[in-house]
What we know:
By secondary structure, this protein is an all-alpha fold. The chain is 54% helix and 0% strand. It has helices at 50-72, 79-86, 107-122, 127-139, 147-159, 180-185, 190-202, 208-225, 230-243, 260-272, 277-285, 291-306, 313-318, 321-336, 339-342. The chain is globular. Residues 106-108, 144, 292-293 line the site of one manganese (II) ion. One manganese (II) ion (MN) binds at residues 106-108, 144, 292-293.
Amino acid sequence: xxAAGEAPLSVSPLGEADQGPPPGTGCGQRGxxxxxxxxxRDVSALRWHPDDVRDRARGAFLGLALGDxxxxxxxxxxxxxxxxxxxxxxxxVGGGWLRLRRGRVTDDTEMSLCLARSIAAAGGLDLRDxxxxxxxxxxxxxxxxxxxxxxxxxxxxxxxxLEAPPAVGDAGNGAVMRMLPVALATLADRERLAREAVAQGxxxxxxxxxxxxxxxxxxxxxxxxxxxxxxxxxxxxxxxxVQVPAFRFDPYRGLATGYVVDTLQTVLHHFHRSDxxxxxxxxxxxxxxxxxxxxxxxxxxxxxxxxxxxxxARWLRRLEAPVREEVEALATGLVAASPLLQGGExxx
Length: 348
Ligand code: MN
Ligand code: MN
């Protein structure tokens, strides 16, 4: 599979349209310049091994839960308040404004679990099934739920519609925080990723910036799960920031609110300059603001990129065992059913 000399890691820059996508990658014309749905047609040139992809997927879902649990302690605090209370916040200790038990996760992980369970059970993205699971979750009285998420789920419960109407107020980070299961389930099919990223997002958030963030995060997760290099991922984000300038993250403005632009800038800034999973997450959550959500998103991305062995054992021990076991099983299952592994190992 990964024999030397086979399909060398491509270093061609994103956005070149000098050759078409390789057959079978699902990359279409609309991915060409000018669209944030840019097609990274060179995924097929990445060398990957199924064991590595599974490991990265597990790392991603565990990383999401770890970032959520770590960040929840300092959610809605300023960097100065965090420094005064914790020095550098680097342990999973619970507390925070939600007064969480140590190791508890919040809506970021819980909504991701709803999506992952649904995709695993339905064998693909079934929006009505997802909406039903979101509704059941909301009825169960979650510790935390964002305003736009609550409004979107209530809309579904009221009228059964699967898409929120476009709204200027929907540019929160609630759709992007739950993107990981869709990314894992669509590995190697970027058109499906873009379609399903937006569709799941529109259940509660209908805003072009939320859509763009969902697609970009999904594409980064694809590249990371397939072993894309640091430079590859960085070039992809740089191209994204050119196509959707609102998301420019260099220079970093230091804002980490629940506005999807601030959230993604925080994640991209810290992820792309990180040298490890732990240091990435510590830097992200100490930025404060919507720290459990920036932590969850950065945790998914860094977990995919650095792999499960990079996750600190002392953090993993703090996670509640049922959550830890379920996210690992779902990550493995979603990847196994993805086009990448279902498509056979011969096409790469
Ligand atoms: Mn949360
Ligand atoms: Mn949050």
